[in-house]
């Protein structure tokens, strides 16, 4: 197959955002009739690369060659005109329009200067039949399931003689039969000579459908491999950045005192949310750090959200301090001394236009109630205390938080919850996107907190960090808790990765 | 899954509106002698022709998820421009009419361009436009300018006879032409469908490669033009220009569009619905006139109650369709 001329070659792609290098020297080549997986963890640069290819972002450096000709793609419209179409994860169509319209809008069939609805309906039916789908095309898109909406999105791309089809996490909200149907369609399109980019976090699916794959990590190109020739362990190690040899070498390991089992704080018994996380057992004990290991999309955040009451459990029982609880909102959890530091610092955590002090006191103020206003003097005292404790730089409580570095913003977020003195602190990727110095400090802080008899749930993509800090480790895969380890001397990164990758 | 008998949820508000109108008309007919006549029905159009025209423009704006607060003031400004050009500058209607129509159109282009280019909230841009247009009408004159010109008098008084001793005014003809063109634009042109797409999801519309910016500017231009045309019809009706004309009319228009079944969040609704919405506002007034003893403020109370009912209806419909989708 690769003896043919490639459909698309991207070389030395560089894309910078203020303060971040989202892509540095990334390359990608696509051949007709292949399914090419784009692999990488959170922040690896997959979505940026896709957005560059589809004209949502412009590139700072590098070249894009389409069928041997250099092209500059400046808008989604231009990408489509060049035959590059994308089906996004959260289907980006207009659900208030009919199926037909979603396929044709922007390039409608016209007759005598008016839109020819009859012809369009017929044509739409034909296109969907090709995808083995027989539905009433005059109905609103919103009356159909996500799986069908996705097929409609694919039909839309087929209507413009597409050369390259990008499927961005198409399977994340489909059930098994729907995935099966989608794969049948992908194989058919492949036969017709389309180059298909496939992004998914499900390794099983990658091995089932793709021919080759490109791995990105932290915005850098790691390599291009034939799917058949790389095994799961190796792939996972490329994605998370640990070489195999390196992984056997365990130098740092926390010293866990397992002689006496500490008191239990929270106990989850078969707790689950339909479609998000399968029922799981988990016990959080005081003075213990529990790590959650798993690839992106394995249900890590979902697990944390249930424990915090951000999503309501529809199965199982949860006990806090021996008493049964039923969290219907985070407020219930906060009142039970549980804190949650979100993964999305930007969208769920910091409030950029407020100062460090104001960001810090948000959670404690909400516990006191808004009528019981903390005096400014008290606020400053608290803020200064935690700035010193966490070594936040610049050490000025009146600084706007948006002007702080990622690591320092993260520390402010931590401070926000530490001020409330939680017994259980859930940290979802607290070390992501911050520099090594700040990472070490945050891990040191976790150890200190556990010595203070706090319980910590630590979610991280960095296996090494988990191994270094945690007493117990739960491994998630495909929205399911598959294994729980005691972090003793024998446990290696390899053991964890085997469970994370699965299917071996 | 094919051909479920249930209606599309987007058609429910429209059906509710039409049923409500029929109900109110029947109520009036049963209660008051002389209410059940073709002329009473036609008067609804004659008295509200200008409101129909602005409601048409407003429908496109709201369908796209925006709002236009400047239309009431633009009616006043257009009436002032028409009156002063006719009476003070002594210009011929052949010049006055096109210039008056340009007033709102230019306003619309500028507002649309600001909204698109600087990514501003339509609410605040058109609020500024509302103050500006109202203020400018007073710059032309603080006093009422009465129009005494054969063309305007002719337009005001002409009655187009209909069978059965009934008649309509020229304004009604203009309004109905506008409605027909708007329905065509809404359903049979790319522009119209792009408006619906933007209202459904602007982000998606952009990613689908639709000309979002151009369409948004055109939407406000269309609304501005409709406001000016309504301003001219209003001038025929009042035979004067005055800075206080159509005070608060933008809110009546929004009420009519929403009662007509268009979702304030955009993406669903019909031009025809807005026409029925205007007729419902009209019939409330007619009923109050027939009642004889009620204060005209009851109109506001009735509109308020109806608006509450309709936004709740919208919410329920949206929630139901979301539930349906979740169970899919």
UniProtKB/TrEMBL annotation, chain A:
Q: Which domain of life is it from?
A: Bacteria
Q: Which Gene3D superfamilies match?
A: P-loop containing nucleotide triphosphate hydrolases (3.40.50.300)
SUPFAM superfamilies, from UniProt? P-loop containing nucleoside triphosphate hydrolases
Localisation: Cell membrane
Asked whether the keyword Membrane is assigned, the reply is yes
Please classify the protein's predominant subcellular localization into one broad category: membrane
Record's GO cellular component terms: plasma membrane
List the keywords (alphabetical): ATP-binding, Cell membrane, Membrane, Nucleotide-binding, Repeat, Sugar transport, Translocase, Transport
Cite the ABC transporter domain residue spans from the record. Answer: 8-243, 256-503
Q: What is this protein called?
A: Simple sugar transport system ATP-binding protein
**Pfam families for the chain:** ABC_tran
- Return one GO MF term: ATP hydrolysis activity
Q: Which InterPro entries match?
A: AAA+_ATPase, ABC_carbohydrate_import_ATPase, ABC_transporter-like_ATP-bd, ABC_transporter-like_CS, P-loop_NTPase
Membrane topology per the entry is: Peripheral membrane protein
According to its UniProt entry, this protein's organism is Gracilibacillus orientalis
Q: Does the keyword Translocase apply?
A: yes
UniProtKB/TrEMBL annotation, chain B:
Which membrane topology describes this protein? Answer: Multi-pass membrane protein
- Locate the transmembrane regions by residue number: 12-33, 40-63, 69-87, 94-117, 123-146, 167-188, 217-239, 251-284, 296-318
Where does the protein principally reside?
A: membrane
GO CC term (a single one): plasma membrane
PANTHER family assigned: ABC TRANSPORTER PERMEASE PROTEIN YPHD-RELATED-RELATED, INNER MEMBRANE ABC TRANSPORTER PERMEASE PROTEIN YJFF
According to its UniProt record, where is this protein located? Cell membrane
Q: Name one Pfam family in it.
A: BPD_transp_2
Its name, as the record gives it, is Simple sugar transport system permease protein
User: Which domain of life does the protein's organism represent?
Assistant: Bacteria
What keywords tag this UniProt record? Cell membrane, Membrane, Sugar transport, Transmembrane, Transmembrane helix, Transport
Q: Which InterPro entries match?
A: ABC_transp_permease
Reply yes or no: does the keyword Ribonucleoprotein apply: no
Kindly list the GO molecular function terms attached to this UniProt entry: transmembrane transporter activity
């Amino acid at each position: 197959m690769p003896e043919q001329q490639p459909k698309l070659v991207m070389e030395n792609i560089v894309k910078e955002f203020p303060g971040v290098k989202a892509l540095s020297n990334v390359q990608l080549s696509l051949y007709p009739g292949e399914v090419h997986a784009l692999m990488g963890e959170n922040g690896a640069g997959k979505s940026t690369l896709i957005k560059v290819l589809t004209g949502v972002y412009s590139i700072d450096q590098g070249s894009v060659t389409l069928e041997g000709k250099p092209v500059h793609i400046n808008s989604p419209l231009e990408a489509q005109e060049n035959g590059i179409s994308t089906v996004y994860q959260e289907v980006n169509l207009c659900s208030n329009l009919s199926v037909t319209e979603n396929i044709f809008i922007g390039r409608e069939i016209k007759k005598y200067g008016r839109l020819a609805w009859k012809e369009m309906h017929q044509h739409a039916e034909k296109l969907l039949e090709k995808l083995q789908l027989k539905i009433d095309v005059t109905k609103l898109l919103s009356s159909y399931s996500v799986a069908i909406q996705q097929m409609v999105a694919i039909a839309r791309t087929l209507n413009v003689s597409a050369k390259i089809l990008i499927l961005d996490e198409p399977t994340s909200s489909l059930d098994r039969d729907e995935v099966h149907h989608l794969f049948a369609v992908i194989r058919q399109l492949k036969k017709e000579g389309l180059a298909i980019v496939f992004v998914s976090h499900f390794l099983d699916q990658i091995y089932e459908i793709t021919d080759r794959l490109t791995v990105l990590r932290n915005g850098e190109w790691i390599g291009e491999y034939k799917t058949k020739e790389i095994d799961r362990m190796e792939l996972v190690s490329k994605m998370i950045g640990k070489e195999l040899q390196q992984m056997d070498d365990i130098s740092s390991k926390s010293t866990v005192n397992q002689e006496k089992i500490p008191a239990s704080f929270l106990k989850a018994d078969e707790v689950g949310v339909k479609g998000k996380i399968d029922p799981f057992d988990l016990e959080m004990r005081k003075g213990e750090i529990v790590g959650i290991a798993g690839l992106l999309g394995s249900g890590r955040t979902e697990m944390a959200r249930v424990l915090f009451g951000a999503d309501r459990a529809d199965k199982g029982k949860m006990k806090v301090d021996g008493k049964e609880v039923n969290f219907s909102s985070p407020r219930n959890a906060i009142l039970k001394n549980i804190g949650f530091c979100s993964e999305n610092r930007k969208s769920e955590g910091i409030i950029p236009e407020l100062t460090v002090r104001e960001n810090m006191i948000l959670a404690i103020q909400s516990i006191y109630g808004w009528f019981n206003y903390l005096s400014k003097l008290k606020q400053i005292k608290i803020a200064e205390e935690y700035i010193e404790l966490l070594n936040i730089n610049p050490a000025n409580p009146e600084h706007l938080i948006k002007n702080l570095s990622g690591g320092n913003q993260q520390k402010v977020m931590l401070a926000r919850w530490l001020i409330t003195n939680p017994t259980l602190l859930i940290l979802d990727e607290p070390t992501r996107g911050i520099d090594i110095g700040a990472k070490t400090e945050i891990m040191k802080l976790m150890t200190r907190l556990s010595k203070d008899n706090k319980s910590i749930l630590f979610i991280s993509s960095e296996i090494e960090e988990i191994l270094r800090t945690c007493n117990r480790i739960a491994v998630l895969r495909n929205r399911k808790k598959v294994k729980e380890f005691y972090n003793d001397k024998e446990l290696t990164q390899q053991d964890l990765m085997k469970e994370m990758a699965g299917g071996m | 899954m094919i051909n479920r008998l249930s209606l599309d949820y987007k058609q429910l508000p429209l059906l509710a509106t039409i049923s409500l109108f029929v109900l109110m008309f029947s109520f009036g007919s049963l209660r008051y002698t002389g209410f059940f006549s073709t002329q009473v029905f036609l008067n609804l159009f004659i008295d509200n022709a200008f409101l129909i025209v602005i409601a048409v423009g407003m429908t496109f704006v709201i369908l796209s998820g925006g709002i236009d607060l400047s239309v009431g003031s633009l009616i006043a400004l257009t009436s002032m421009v028409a009156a002063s050009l006719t009476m003070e500058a002594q210009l011929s209607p052949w010049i006055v009419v096109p210039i008056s129509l340009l007033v709102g159109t230019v306003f619309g282009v500028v507002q649309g361009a600001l909204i698109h280019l600087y990514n501003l909230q339509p609410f605040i841009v058109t609020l500024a436009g509302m103050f500006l247009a109202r203020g400018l009408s007073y710059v032309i004159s603080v006093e009422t300018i009465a129009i005494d010109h054969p063309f305007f008098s002719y337009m005001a008084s002409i009655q187009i006879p209909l069978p059965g001793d009934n008649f309509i005014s020229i304004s009604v003809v203009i309004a109905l032409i506008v409605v027909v063109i708007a329905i065509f634009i809404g359903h049979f042109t790319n522009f119209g469908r792009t408006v619906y797409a933007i209202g459904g999801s602007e982000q998606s519309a952009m990613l689908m490669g639709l000309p979002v910016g151009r369409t948004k500017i055109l939407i406000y231009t269309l609304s501005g033009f409709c406001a000016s045309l309504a301003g001219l019809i209003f001038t025929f009706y009042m035979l004067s220009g005055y800075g206080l004309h159509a005070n608060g009319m933008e809110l009546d228009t929004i009420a009519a569009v929403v009662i007509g079944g268009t979702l304030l969040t955009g993406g669903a609704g019909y031009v025809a619905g807005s026409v029925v919405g205007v007729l419902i506002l009209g019939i409330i007034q007619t009923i109050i006139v027939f009642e004889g003893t009620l204060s005209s403020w009851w109109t506001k109370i009735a509109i308020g109650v109806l608006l509450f009912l309709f936004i709740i209806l919208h919410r329920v419909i949206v929630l139901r369709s979301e539930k349906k989708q979740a169970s899919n």
